Structures are given as structure tokens and as C-alpha cells.
Amino acid sequence: MTQHPLPAHLRVALTLAQTGVPVLPLRAGKLPVGNCAACRSTACGGRPNMQTPGPCQCPRPCHAWAAATTDTDVLTSAPWAAAWRHAAGVAYHPGGAGWTVVDLDHADAVAWAREHLPATRTVATARGEHWIYQGTMRSVNGVRDGIDLKSTAAYARWRGPGTGLMQPLPDTVRALADKAPARPVPVVLSVPRTAVGGQCRHRTPAYLERGIAMAEQRITDAPSAVHATVYRTFLAVLSTHGRCGCLTEGHIGRLFTAAQARGESPRHCTVAWSNARTALGM
After folding, report:
1. Residue 282 has pLDDT above 80, yes or no
2. What counts of helices (H) and strands (E) characterise the chain?
3. Would you give the end-to-end CA distance of the chain in angstroms?
4. Whole-structure pTM value
5. Is 160 left (phi over 0), alpha (psi -120 to 50) or beta?
6. Planar angle of CA 105, 158, 92, nearest 5 degrees
7. According to the model, what pLDDT value does residue 25 have?
8. In sequence order, which residues have a C-beta less than 8 Å from that of residue 279 and are 6 or more positions away?
């Protein structure tokens, strides 16, 4: 029986998995594989947007970073096969490997890191560098211009082993995240209502549910410019659903959870929501 060669990205993934680095396939745009229908919007009961994965037991590469695994049997299983055949790259879960990645997105960010952070393993990227430290912390985007921190509940694209010795995670890196609360904070916001007797223009509750689910996915899939994506998504949700009276605190909470999973602080979510309402005259 003829055996087909393994896809190149799968070969890389297997090598990483065997060294204890949890991996997952990436599609075009540095995006993880989208959730299957059973897992979309956490219908499976899983928690892809929280700090720990599960309890979803989906055999497919669902749930973005939470799908990352070191199990070579899972990586080569039939449910993952199509994802590897069409993969545009390999991603890994830094926190699962015990690492923190300081993602430096442009030359100015790299220059700042060279001046303020201790040297460590360095990996060249398309526009900047990844500095990788031994140790984990929470992931936060936009701690400085062009600088994201990727560790727990995040993924980074594998671009090779890099150069230099990996150093312990320094306090200077941990301090970059201090501007944001350590845990998501529930936020209570007013929801615009229609006048008394106003009728919702949505024909079925499924219309609103689909809109919220799509908004969550848009935030989750944002490859970059997360701040701007969150604001534009909030603006789109409010412009479509904000005046009919059907948008609840639960819906807002889902959007905030998705944004905070990408490293946004509760304060930024509140400001973005308020700015979107102001822009729409609400």
C-alpha cells in the first residue's frame, strides 16, 4: 500500500510536539481553524475564550489556542488531516510550553526591547521579532506601540527555533501587563432601548444570536490591530442591534469576553463600547 508523505507543516508540528510544545494548524492570514458547527459560540460547553480549555472533547482542531496539543496521535488523526493539508503555517501555545513571547511588530518596538529588556532567544518575523522567555504570564495585546505579550490563552506562529539562549521571564516583561487587571471584570453598561411600545425589527431571536456569534468570531480571528477590530465590531453590533431593545447585558458580556481573551483590558472594552455608542448618537 502506497503511503503518502506527510504535509510539510505537519512534519514541523510533530517535531515540536515531541519536544513538549503544543501545536495547531494555521490557515491563511495566520488564523486558527474555525470552530466546527457543534463548537461554534461554545455550543459544546467548551470555553475557548477563557484562560483554560475544555471541557469540550471535539476531535477536530477547534477552539483556536485551546486546540494546541502535544499528542501526536491527535495531530495525525483523520479529523485533523484536512486542516494540515490546507494549512498555511504552524502555531503553538506559548503558555503550554512554559514560555512567554514578546511580539515586537516593527523596528521601533525592536529598538525599545533592545534598550529595556534582557536579551533572550530571538526569532525573526515578517515585520519584527519574537523574543521568547522561559516562564508564563497572562497574554495582553498592545502593552506598548507594536508590542503584544503572548503566553497563556494565546497562540504564536512558529517561525523557526531562532537564535540565542532562552532566559527566565524578567519582571520588566511582567510589568508591561500591569496596566490591565489580572482577571476579566464584569462590566455593567446601559443598553439603549426603544420608546415604549417599540417593536423589534428582528423577526427571530436567531438573527440576534447569529450577529453576536459572528461578532465574537471576528474579534477572535483578528490577526492584528485588535484595538481597532474591537471598536469596529462594537460599532457594527450597536448599529444593527443597539436600538431595538433586544441587546442584553449577556450579549455585551460575550463581546467583552472575546475581546479580553485577545488581550484587551476591561477598561479598553468599556471605552470602545462608549465611543461606539457616541459615534452612533446613542
Report:
1. no
2. 10, 10
3. 66
4. 0.67
5. left
6. 105
7. 95
8. 235
